[in-house]
Every structure is written in structure tokens, then in C-alpha cells.
Specification:
Blueprint lengths: L10 H22 L17 H24 L9 H11 L4 H20 L9 E3 L5 E3 L2 H16 L11 H18 L5 E6 L6 E3 L7 E6 H8 L8 E2 L13
Parallel strand pairs: 3-5
Antiparallel strand pairs: 1-2, 3-4, 5-6
């Protein structure tokens, strides 16, 4: 039997789907390295166990699949009923037995992958609404999922780091974070100097006369900007930078 292929034809979209699928596989590998007992241990996210992270990643796949159903049918299907419902879902999911949590991640990822695979080219341009209220083309769901699986694989606190994330993913993530800072005005007098990035060298308040300059590799700066850690970075004012501005 010949395996079914993506109906999408755009090369950039197909490449993005491949990156998302690789991220899903990476998250799955890091999850499978954990014992059932490990799942109740702390993650890198304050207040969340590994089980919270796992539940979030599983339910996120279901939520994004709902957006793809919207794109394919034209029937509005929100990601979540409300922010409260989303949070309650994660809290409930974190109480599931380990086997159920593992099945949630696996089965929800398969469901989303099927939705992506069976979406025809014209439907990818249809507009859907994110949980934050942004109206975006369905193609944006691929980036939404890519960011979740790669970053939360690190949050499992199981040896993965931002250095394991592909450079194009890190670059786009860092640009997104910097744009969020700029929109809130929290990047004032802050410049990021990035080394080793294929297409990114500076971000931030580049017109500031005397900014704080935070320097480091693409992986380390992105980890810091995403609120994870400050290892490997230097600050022109403090030696080591303090906490990054809020991202989300």
C-alpha cells in the first residue's frame, strides 16, 4: 500500500510541516526517555510538573486540529471554549495516569498530522483565530505547533536544550519574542547581539544611544529571551543579564 501524502503543494509549507513533525518526534523521544515516576517531577516551567507540560502539548495538538477543521469546513471551531477552560483542561490532564498521558500525546499528534495531511492547497489560505484572538491563515498553525513541541521538549528537563532546536526555528522564535517586546515597549535600551546565527545578528532597540547589549549564541539568547536561563550570556552593563522582558 502506498503511503498517503500531503495534499499541500507549496514547497515552503511542506518544509515547515517537516520541521513540525521532526519537533513532534523529538518531543516524543524525550518523553519516552522518562519513566512513569519521572512524570510527576518538576519541569522547567514554574508551578508545572512534567505531567503539566505533557498534558499541555497533547491538548495543544487537539486545539490546533480544531483550527484545521475550521479551515477545511468553513465552520468556526475555536481552539478552546475559553482561557479558563484551557487552563482547567491542563490541570485535569496533569492528573491522568502516565499511560493515559503518553497516549494523549501520541494520539493527538496523529490526529493533527492527519488534518494537516488531508488539507487541500486552497484551504491553507483560509483564516482562523488563535487563542489570543489573532486572525491568521491556516498555514500559521504549523508554526504554532512547531514552537510548542521544540520548546516544550526542553521544558521536560530531561537533557534537551535550545541547542537541539534547528537554527531556523530559533531565529523565527527570537524574532517573534523581540516583536512582542517591541509592541509593549519593553525592549527600550536593550540590544541583542547574536553570534553563530545564519541570518540574524542584531535585534532590539537599535537606535538607542547607550543600550544594554546582551551577547551570546543564538541558542543561549533565545533560551534567555524565552525566560528559560541566562547561561553563556554577557551583558554590557551587569556582566550577566537579569531576567528577560516578559514574552507571553
Amino acid at each position: 500500500m502506498v503511503a498517503r501524502q500531503d495534499l499541500a503543494t507549496d514547497p515552503a509549507l511542506l518544509e515547515a510541516l517537516l520541521t513540525a513533525r521532526r519537533g513532534t518526534a523529538f518531543f516524543g523521544r524525550k518523553l519516552n526517555e522518562l519513566s512513569d515516576e519521572d512524570l510527576s517531577g518538576p519541569s522547567l516551567l514554574p508551578g508545572w510538573t512534567r505531567a503539566h507540560v505533557i498534558a499541555h502539548v497533547g491538548y495543544n495538538a487537539r486545539a490546533i486540529a480544531r483550527l484545521m477543521e475550521w479551515a477545511n469546513t468553513g465552520v468556526e471551531t475555536p481552539m478552546y471554549a475559553s482561557a479558563r477552560a484551557r487552563n482547567e483542561e491542563i490541570e485535569y490532564g496533569a492528573t491522568l495516569p502516565p499511560a493515559a498521558l503518553r497516549h494523549l500525546v501520541e494520539h493527538s499528534a496523529i490526529h493533527l498530522n492527519v488534518e494537516w495531511r488531508d488539507t487541500p492547497p486552497h484551504a491553507w489560505a483560509r483564516r482562523v483565530k488563535t487563542a489570543q484572538g489573532r486572525t491568521v491563515p491556516a498555514t500559521e498553525t504549523v508554526w504554532m505547533r512547531t514552537r510548542e513541541v521544540w520548546v516544550h521538549a526542553v521544558d521536560l528537563a530531561n537533557g534537551a536544550s535550545f541547542a537541539d532546536i534547528p537554527a531556523p526555528v530559533l531565529e523565527r522564535l527570537l524574532k517573534d519574542i523581540a516583536a512582542a517586546w517591541h509592541a509593549r515597549g519593553s525592549d527600550k535600551d536593550l540590544v541583542l547581539k547574536i553570534s553563530g546565527a545564519p541570518a540574524l545578528t542584531e535585534l532590539g532597540d537599535l537606535d538607542a544611544p547607550d543600550p544594554e547589549i546582551v551577547s551570546g549564541s543564538l541558542a543561549e539568547i533565545t533560551a534567555w529571551a524565552a525566560g528559560r536561563h541566562t547561561r553563556g550570556l554577557t551583558s554590557s552593563r551587569h556582566g550577566e543579564p537579569g531576567p528577560a522582558p516578559r514574552w507571553l
